[in-house]
Structures are given as C-alpha cells and as structure tokens.
Amino acid sequence: MESRYATEQFPSSNFLICGGSILFESTHAPLRICLLRHNVRDEWLLPKGRKDRGEGVTAAAMRETYEETGYPCRLLPLDLVTRAPEPGAQTKDAPALVEKSEEPFMLTLRRTVPNGGVKFIWWYATVCTGEEHVDGTQTAAENFSSRFFDVEEAVTTATFQADRDVIARAAELVRATYPEARESAS
Fold it and tell me: Among residues 50, 61, 104, 174, which one has the fewest Cβ atoms lying within 10 Å of its Cβ?
C-alpha cells in the first residue's frame, strides 16, 4: 500500500545534512548581518556547511559560521512557530508558537544534479559574542572574506534569491523576538 503523502527516500550516499546561520552583529537596531564573499567566484553567500559525522546540526551551523566568518558566535533563540513537540510530549503534530526557541527557523532543500542527490540546509540565527574576529579559521579549501551589512543591503547584495529569502525571514523573526532590534519610529 502506498502512503497518501508524497514520499521520496534517499540512501545515505545521496544526501548531505548541512547547517547554516544568519550571523547578526547584535540584536540592536539597526540590524546588521554577515555575508561571505567567495573570493574566486565573486559571490555573496551565507555561512553554511556539511555536518561532520557524529555532530549535531546546530553545532555544525555554529562551527561553520565561525570557521567561514572568523567571528565567535552563539545561538540566538527566536520566537517562532515550530512543529517540534516539547520533549516527551504525546500530542498530535501541530504548529505551535514557542518563545526563545533554538530550533531551526528554515530549511532549504537543494537538489544536487546530476547525481540525483539532495542537500538539506537547516538555518539558525546566531549572534556575535563580542569577542574579536579571528583570522585563519577557514579550511584549506575555503576562500572567503566576511563583511557586515545592514539587513536591507544584505538582501540586495546576496547573490542567490534563496539566501535573500533566508535573510529576510531571519530579520523578521529577530525583530519580532527582540524589542531592541526594532527601528524606532521617528
């Protein structure tokens, strides 16, 4: 019998689990986020990457953000609607508003042609810890420079529409969660 829901399955050789984050300089207005410039391809991107074996996705997102940007960061909890139940809950699947959630706020599913695989990118919000930028954190295969932009400029600067959508959603959630992130009415 077939499921009534559209279902696709992928063997472990055909999927990647990745974590990425929108790195905010602080939660105070005006909000500024970090973009990476790929110095070879001249593309503006968000920090993200593959999770290592045995590593959780949240840890991977924070590690990749630090490695690629050089900025020490921490997870930034957000008020968001999630389908994740409370630990131990015996409830039906339903979306619920959770304050200061550390769940991912967005998922990107990228089909990786030609091998028929997929890449799952779980997105989190992070914020700088206030520690100094560290040089030399990138792997040998990476060639990025990092720069902070006002959110609106980041949305127009990011090379890919999918990244622009993630930036806009993250900024919306940070402004809804943290009163100090909202622009004051003049």
Answer: 50
